[in-house]
Amino acid sequence: MQDQPLISIITIHYNHGVGLRRTVESILAQTERKAFEWIVIDGGSTDGSAEFLKGISADIDVLVSEKDGGIYDAMNKGLGKAQGQYVWFVNAGDALHDDSVVKVVVTAVRGFEKNHAGVLPDVVFGDTMFIDQEGMSIGLISQLKPQPFPKKLNKNSFRFGMNVCHQSILVKRSIAGKYDEQYRLAADVDWIIAALKSMNGQSLRVESVLSNFETGGSSYQHTKKAWKERYDVLTKHYGAVPNLFAHGWILFRRLLFNLNLLGKRKNAGLLTA
To answer: Quick check: 210 and 165 in contact, CB under 8 A?
Structure first.
């Protein structure tokens, strides 16, 4: 049996051939290939991409193509196949930011391990570039979100909203539970918070952009339902009254952030009076 990989990169896909190719290119371009296994869970696509995946199956460590019960069922399948010390979801349409990302993560993790008597961080995270469905850059989450980008993560980090993208978080497999499939749009938020609450050690922030996140997915297409689910998830983890006050602060901070952004654009001459 081969040595255990440090990372299991898991890609979930269903009928998104254009986005899938962007994801595939970014993963196959990685210079540190031995550090990760690549697991692809396809939901039985009918747009020709299932055949495309079979054509590159030699580059995929585990390929499953069959009907599933939705994205979170597929993600649970991926978790069940993972053998790495960390799991990292880079789904179809998303991408690793550049060809050295895995190498940068491995170097950071091994440096942490050396400085902490052989102990690995429980969670590794970095910045995210938002992209549109054509792959064009929109901006970094650290610049576009009103809340400060965190130096560390803990169980309370997302009390005031998600300020780190799911696609730029690696979770140690030993603390990664299953996705709660009762949620249709926000199980990823629930999963990450649950993992942070299970931490026994520390998190590690990598000072790099780790992933490109494609906007316009299910959560964007069903915004009201997604917000409702996220509110329910945050209430579940943080309590009803604290979550109510937290959302009041979130709205106020968003207003201040937008006003500040508007002022900067006016000063830069991007807006006319």
So the answer is: no
The residue written with tokens 């580059």 in the block is: 59
Strand residue runs (E) in 108-239: 123-131, 137-140, 169-172, 203-214
Domains of the chain (ranges plus CATH)? 7-218 (3.90.550.10)
Neighbours of 54 (CB within 10 A): 12
Chain centre to alpha carbon of residue 33? 20
Token duo for residue 62: 């585990």
Q: What percent of the chain has pLDDT over 70?
A: 89
Residue found under tokens 């595939």: 24
**DSSP string covering 70-84:** SHHHHHHHHHHH--S
Label residue 103 by pLDDT band (50, 70, 90).
very high
Contact 41, 77 (CB under 8 A): yes
- The gap between the terminal CA atoms of the chain, to the nearest Å, is 67
Kindly state the helix (H) or strand (E) to which residue 262 belongs, with its residue range: helix 240-267
Reported as a single tens digit per residue, the pLDDT across 222-253 is 678 888 999 999 999 999 998 788 777 767 66
pTM (global) more than 0.85: yes
